[in-house]
């Protein structure tokens, strides 16, 4: 089926959205044209403005259109001296939803991956080291993912912390709360055993 | 979690897309910012241009930015004198994919629905009647959906056809080819029985 050029282009570009295939894009295009042109126009403007203006926070590297994000601009949180290192802005969202962490973050925007040519500078570890050196941090919590790359990245950063005499800790890995042992993968179970605590 | 204003607006407007919830929108926003700003910008422009310029074909009412869509501009198809009535542009796509219909379409962009205040004029049935009256149509194929509203709409149009002496037919409803009887709903089975053909 030959769509008109503008409709073809709309369907094609909708497939750029992760998780949207050709069929879904066609359905979305028709539905927006039929029922929500205003909404589609609002989305068009929001996409444009976001891509044009959202950069990285100068302190923690998360996404924001401001120089400094809201968390880094919160002096109470900065003064805590606790810095949590995560791989992505989504990780910040997940941790913030627990409402239990009161420090600030440092978002790597990835992890060390020599095969992909991603080294320490790509993760902003030079900036991180400058902060470790300035003496204002009491503790660094390493919350990278429990993957090979995440562990290697955590290990690398823990050595930077050691070098600058800043306490470093790794978040605990084990059986999820409410999880049933029977359904947990072996690797997680091994972590749960080796990380056991004396009662 | 408090996102920056532009990021909040992006996530909010992404939920205007049918089938995308808050969580999916957040994931999409981050992924586009991280990995495909160019694609997001292209989508922004495509959305803008589509919503601004895509209107309805003057002949068949389907979506197009041209006065007349590609199918209606095809004289071979127009000269066939066969017009297929469907409820939506997606139906045109489905029929075109079979590559077996060589006439043109008339897209109602809905169906008669007195409760929702949708009457004949809203479906362009005045325009359709003008075409039935001008003597160039040999046959009208009613391909509205096999729902209460679709049937009522087909019935209404068949009466217009009768009034203007244009042959009208309704597409067959029954067990889908390859479908297993066991899994077909009762209504479809009833249609299949009442629509049986002598061998
Ligand atoms: Zn920040
Ligand atoms: Zn047309």
TrEMBL record, chains A, B:
It holds the Pfam family RecR_ZnF. One of its GO terms (molecular function) is zinc ion binding. Coiled coil: none annotated. Residues 81-176 form the Toprim domain. It comes from the Bacteria. PROSITE patterns: TOPRIM (PS50880). A zinc finger (C4-type) spans 57-72. One of its GO terms (biological process) is DNA recombination. Keywords: DNA damage, DNA recombination, DNA repair, Metal-binding, Zinc, Zinc-finger. Belongs to the RecR family. PANTHER family: RECOMBINATION PROTEIN RECR. May play a role in DNA repair. It seems to be involved in an RecBC-independent recombinational process of DNA repair. It may act with RecF and RecO. This is Recombination protein RecR.
């Amino acid at each position: 089926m030959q769509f008109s050029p503008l409709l073809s282009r709309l369907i094609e570009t909708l497939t750029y959205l992760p998780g949207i295939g050709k069929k879904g894009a066609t359905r979305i295009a028709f539905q927006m044209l039929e029922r929500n042109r205003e909404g589609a126009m609002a989305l068009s403007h929001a996409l444009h403005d976001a891509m044009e203006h959202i950069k990285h926070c100068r302190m923690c590297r998360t996404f924001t259109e401001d120089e400094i994000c809201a968390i880094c601009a919160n002096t109470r949180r900065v003064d805590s001296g606790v810095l949590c290192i995560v791989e992505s802005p989504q990780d910040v969202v997940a941790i913030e939803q627990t409402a239990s962490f009161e420090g600030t973050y440092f978002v790597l925007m990835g992890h060390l991956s020599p095969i992909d040519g991603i080294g320490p500078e790509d993760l902003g570890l030079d900036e991180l080291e400058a902060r470790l050196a300035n003496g204002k941090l009491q503790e660094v919590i390493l919350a990278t993912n429990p993957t090979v790359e995440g562990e290697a990245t955590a290990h690398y950063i823990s050595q930077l912390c050691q070098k600058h005499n800043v306490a470093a800790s790794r978040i605990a890995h084990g059986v999820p709360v409410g999880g049933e042992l029977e359904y947990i993968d072996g690797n997680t179970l091994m972590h749960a055993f080796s990380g056991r605590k004396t009662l």
